[in-house]
Design brief:
The chain is rod-shaped, with a radius of gyration of 42 Å. A hairpin with a 2-residue loop joins strand 1 and strand 2. The protein is built from two helices and two strands, in the order ααββ. With 107 residues, the protein is mostly helical. The N and C termini lie far apart (133 Å). It has a two-stranded antiparallel ribbon.
Length: 107
């Protein structure tokens, strides 16, 4: 019987990518093996999906601030109209003997 040739596997993670006959031929002749890797991923930055959550939080915060300001202004408007209606209905205001006519004509 003939002895089996010594088996040398390629190093690292290159084993699945190099055909065995090419590796054995390169090992026997000493010629280098050139591996060409084609990459279709041309993006270098972060994917847009990672920006979605911060933008959603910022948008919700902006809407919340806008709604809070609008509610405050509506409450202030309601308070001013209420004060105006009460002052118009009561007439002059008297405090400690001093009378103020808040709303009325200057005639």
């Amino acid at each position: 019987m003939l002895p089996e040739p010594a088996r040398h596997d390629p190093p690292g993670s290159l084993a699945p990518h190099i055909p065995a006959d090419v590796y054995r031929r390169a090992e026997a002749t000493g010629s280098p093996v050139v591996i060409v890797v084609q990459s279709t991923d041309t993006t270098t930055g972060r994917p847009l999906r990672e920006y979605l959550l911060p933008l959603a939080v910022a948008g919700a915060g902006a809407i919340g601030v806008f709604a809070t300001v609008a509610a405050f202004l509506a409450l202030l408007d309601f308070a001013v109209h209420t004060a105006t209606a009460i002052a118009a209905a009561t007439g002059p205001i008297s405090v400690g003997g001093i009378t103020f006519k808040v709303f009325g004509s200057k005639r």
